[in-house]
Amino acid sequence: MFSRFERMVAWRYLRSKKAEGFVSVIAGFSFAGIMLGVATLIIVMSVMNGFRQDLFSRILGMGGHMNVYTQGGPLFDYDALTEEIRRVDGIKNATPVIENQALLTVNGASTGVMVRGINQTDFAARDILMDSIKQGDLEHFRDNEVAIGTAMAKNFRLNIGDQITLMSPKTKSTPFGGMPRQRSYTVGMIFDVGMYQYNSNYIFMPLDTAQRFFEYNDGVSSIEIFLNHPEELEKIRKKLDKELAGRALVSDWRDLNKEFFNALNVERNVMFLILTMIIIVAAFNIISSMIMLVKDKGHDIAIMRTMGATRHNMLKIFILTGASIGFIGTIAGSILGISFALNIESIRKFLEGLTGTNLFSAEIYFLSQLPAEIDWSDVALVIGMAFSLSILATLYPAWRAARLDPVEALRYE
Fold first, then answer.
1. Pairing between strand 145-149 and 177-191?
2. Averaged pLDDT for residues 3-29
3. β-strand pairing of 222-227 with 91-106
């Protein structure tokens, strides 16, 4: 594509000389701008991908891809219905659960919590729950023993074996009127699923214990469904809607979290557009430096033209000169961004230790660790965009160099 002569001249123009030192400074800023722009885009896209994927996996791991429920009351005869659902092609597992709100009281301090009732075997079948147990074991998830999150345990200074009191929103009739139902339970397990919302607000208890506490008798709130292939969600939901028509309703994670994930996607797209401006500014710097270089090298261009160099040669020389800045900056930025994204959690801990501040608060960002997931298609898009902008930035200055008239350039020499 480029001859040896064109590569040699372009390389000489890239090297810093005293005469064109200011041009080299602008080219250096262009290189730094493209490098930082590419690195920043890769880092931000990786963090947002990781943030979305972590939230997605934890929310679906806790609540399932779909839910089967009845409107206005508990779902009865759930055992037979659960077995029927499990036999549907594409469904990995179905779990009957009870989910309801309650008031937690510990040593006079109270807060609202979400109580989830689940069978011990179903608890064990969920990897996200089993892998999150920090204290206690599954043998202590029975009768009146419950599991709480690490944030709740920290906030209320609870340990294994401590007592907590839960108050149900339902009341019981007494000679003195309606009184809230309340019972004491023992902390049997402490878990950490990596999301502050669950670690601080959720209590898991055995399903039969939850049925007694919330007076569900032989019913449950819903049946949570996990799929083998989440991308088949729409097809399987239609199948379930048809099979359960008149007996139960079906909803999926999109009904509950649609606005949340749409907001994440909008934020991701906006951040991409904003950070792309860094690369565009750097591309304008390339235009400035190349225009100044063409003006400074007008005499040299005229001499090369008189010695036989064509306008096409001049065009390619200055395209190669400017594109080299963008190419090297893009490669350096890619290496920097990928390296940063791969080690972002270690870098966060180092900066927190250095500054003594909490840079990623679990209470604000939901997750207890800063996630990063490199999407190579995003990396390819950023690299392609940066390199394309770098080439486009050289076209006008290169065209100016090719159009330069040797007679006019040497008239006053």
1. parallel
2. 67
3. antiparallel
For residues 239, 241, 243, 249, the Cα torsion angle rounded to the nearest 10 degrees is 150
Q: What residue spans of 138-206 are helical by DSSP H?
A: 150-156, 196-201
C-alpha closest to that of 78 among 229, 333, 248: 248
Q: Give pLDDT tens digits for 126-139.
A: 888 888 899 988 88
Which phi-psi region, left, alpha or beta, contains residue 107 (left: φ > 0; alpha: ψ -120 to 50)? Answer: left
Residue 174: its H or E element: strand 163-174
Cβ contact 147:141 at 8 Å: yes
Q: Which residues of 193-216 are buried (b: 16+ CB within 10 A; e: fewer)?
A: bbbbbbbbbbbbbbbbbbbebbeb
Digit-coded pLDDT (tens) for 174-186 = 665 566 788 999 9
Taking the C-alpha atoms of residue 185 and residue 403, their distance in angstroms, rounded to an integer, is 86
Q: What average pLDDT does range 291-301 have in this prediction?
A: 76
For β-strands 163-174 and 91-106, DSSP reports them as antiparallel
- Taking only Cα atoms into account, the Rg of the chain, rounded to an integer number of angstroms, comes to 32
Which of 1-10, 214-223, 295-304, 310-319 is most confident? 214-223
User: In this structure, how many other beta carbons lie within 10 angstroms of the beta carbon of residue 402?
Assistant: 20
Between the alpha carbon of residue 135 and those of residues 141, 185, 196, 197, the distances in Å are 12, 17, 17, 19
SS (H, E, C) 15-74: CCCCCCHHHHHHHHHHHHHHHHHHHHHHHHHHHHHHHHHHHHHHHHHHHCCEEEECCCCC
Give the angle subtended at the CA of 72 by the CAs of 67 and 76, to the nearest 5°. Answer: 65
CB 179: neighbour CB atoms within 10 A?
11
CA distances from 33 to 165, 235, 284, 342, 399 (A): 58, 47, 10, 22, 24
- CA torsion 47-260-364-132 (nearest 10°) is -80
Burial class (CB in 10 A: 0-12, 13-18, 19+), 332: middle
Query: Which class for 397: exposed (0-12), middle (13-18), buried (19 or more C-beta within 10 A)?
Result: buried
The answer to whether the beta carbons of residues 336 and 386 sit under 8 Å apart is: no
Cα–Cα dist 263/281, whole Å: 28
